[in-house]
């Protein structure tokens, strides 16, 4: 009998522990949502580079080839936005002889460049993804493709904002339902106290994760044959993520 009484008391204690009072409890609930959309914008970086003992000659050839490349890009994709992305001129010095251990250091002479490296880049932003391979191939007759990345236009991103918020808020409601069930409470007993969408407190705000194709090509000899086969691109898609934190209080 004493053993049975002890078991009953332990069972009552466990039952009591499993049914802690939740009146007035404040529960912090994180929620997540995402929207996926096919990329509709491409940004390509094309460049030209030349090396010559005569700095002016190298710069002149670079300037001429960039002008030709810009004309090709404007003709191939008139709606594309073009922007100069950089212009650099570097001196190239001869290699210094190695220092022989135990020998006195030679007198330091002024370094004189043996040649000059000149480079210029242009950024192309376009929504004409179908024509992008043809556009790039045409420009590669004089320019080198160094980088391509795909993403969403600002207009598409704004249009997806409502869907992203709705998906995140739906996830919040689903989590609140699950938590209420686990606590043995009804959802009607819960009152949504605070919803933090953008991390105005100590919570994380929204962030954007881009998944798609990214093409990187090294600079090549620009004195190549003018005919270039069209490259192959896969624009991929972009995932817009949002995280919010809600505070729920049970009556």
Task: Name its key features.
single chain; 251 residues; alpha+beta; Alpha-Beta Plaits; 5-stranded antiparallel beta sheet; 4-stranded antiparallel beta sheet; 5 helices; 35% strand; elongated; disordered N terminus
Characterization of the model:
Keywords: Signal. InterPro entries: 26kDa_periplasmic_antigen, SIMPL/DUF541. This is DUF541 domain-containing protein. Residues 1-17 form the signal peptide. The protein has 251 residues and is of the alpha+beta class. Among the domains are: 25-37 and 156-201 and 244-250, no CATH class; 43-93 and 114-151, Alpha-Beta Plaits, CATH 3.30.70. Helices cover 30% and strands 35% of the residues. It contains five helices and nine strands. The strands form two sheets. It has a five-stranded antiparallel sheet with strand order 3-4-2-5-8. Strands 1, 6, 7 and 9 form a four-stranded antiparallel sheet that branches. Helix 2 runs antiparallel to helix 3. The longest helix is centred in the N-terminal third of the chain and has 22 residues, at 55-76. Mean pLDDT is 81; it is low at 1-17 and 200-225.
